[in-house]
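#data-curation
PF: Archiving a pair of folding outputs for the training set. Convention for this channel: one message per protein, sequence first, structure tokens after, nothing in between. First:
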Amino acid sequence: MTTYDEKDLINNDYESTTTGGDDPKYIAIRDRERVNKKELYEVIYFCNSFLANHNLKEKGSFQKVEKLLRHPDASKIVMRDALNAFVLNNWNKNLV
């Protein structure tokens, strides 16, 4: 499986440190359910997971997921399942 990292992101304004008490190597129930779209490692993980779940491999697809995460219609969506649904439902629309 191809995975991408921070150098493959379009934007560079993510927080590279974890928020209070958050450990990037520990995935608790809350981390499995929610996505902090400001945290570098969470955005990278979400984008790579989406690609893996949908058999996508291109860097452009990784960046498209990132763009959809930052779309205004997704701004209040924090639950992982809802974000996955949003990206999937808008994949073929001309939002980005």
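PF: Second:
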Amino acid sequence: MLMLFLPLFFLLFWMPRSQQKKQAAALSKLTKGDKVITQSGLIGKLVETGERIYKLEIAPGVKVDVLKSSIAGKDGADTAPANKK
């Protein structure tokens, strides 16, 4: 019975925690001027950071407030692939 519940426990509780830690680490590394992407797909430059709200510039002169939790991470388009053929 224990062998049945142990993998289930691992999948339900351990995996999301590790993902949350990775997301928190990625958000803590963001600085002003970084190009970021939100979970809804908006791409913009990080202008201001706060405890709960970040301000993104999505076009010249157009700034929007987004929740910190909606930031997916840095935009990967400006980083080159590691092994480009």
